């Protein structure tokens, strides 16, 4: 089961891809010897296109990992003999004895 994002339209992917679109437009202006922020409508369009690509990439990524987890859980449920329950250990038996160094 996939836990839904609390705010699916604004996440790291939309911001990163949108920023990449914005700054690629700024670099394009620099390479064509225009002022960096001239043509703000192109910057806005590049940001929106980048954010949309980031949104759909995030959806694809979440579906990919959810499908992968489903396959793994299904395999573990179908082959329980390959995945025995681990024995329970107490922290005292795992950690080495400790003494302060003076």
From TrEMBL:
Membrane topology: Single-pass membrane protein
Pfam families listed in its UniProt record: NDUF_C2
Regions that span the bilayer: 40-57
Main location: mitochondrion
Residue segments, region Disordered: 82-102
UniProt keyword annotations, A-Z: Electron transport, Membrane, Mitochondrion, Mitochondrion inner membrane, Respiratory chain, Transmembrane, Transmembrane helix, Transport
InterPro entries: NDUC2
Signal peptide: none
Statement: the UniProt record of this protein carries the keyword Transport: yes
Taxonomy, superkingdom: Eukaryota
The keyword Membrane belongs to this UniProt entry's keyword annotation: yes
Subcellular location, record wording: Mitochondrion inner membrane
Protein family membership: Belongs to the complex I NDUFC2 subunit family.
UniProt function note: Accessory subunit of the mitochondrial membrane respiratory chain NADH dehydrogenase (Complex I), that is believed not to be involved in catalysis. Complex I functions in the transfer of electrons from NADH to the respiratory chain. The immediate electron acceptor for the enzyme is believed to be ubiquinone.
Protein name, per record: NADH dehydrogenase [ubiquinone] 1 subunit C2
Protein species of origin: Saccoglossus kowalevskii (Acorn worm)
Gene field: LOC100375442
């Amino acid at each position: 089961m996939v836990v839904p994002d609390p705010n699916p339209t604004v996440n790291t992917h939309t911001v990163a891809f949108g920023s990449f679109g914005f700054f690629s437009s700024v670099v394009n202006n620099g390479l064509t010897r225009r002022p960096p922020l001239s043509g703000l409508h192109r910057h806005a369009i590049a940001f929106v296109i980048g954010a949309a690509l980031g949104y759909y990439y995030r959806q694809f990524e979440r579906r990919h990992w959810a499908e992968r987890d489903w396959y793994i859980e299904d395999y573990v449920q179908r082959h329980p003999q390959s995945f025995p329950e681990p024995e329970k250990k107490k922290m005292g038996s795992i950690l080495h004895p400790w003494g302060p160094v003076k």
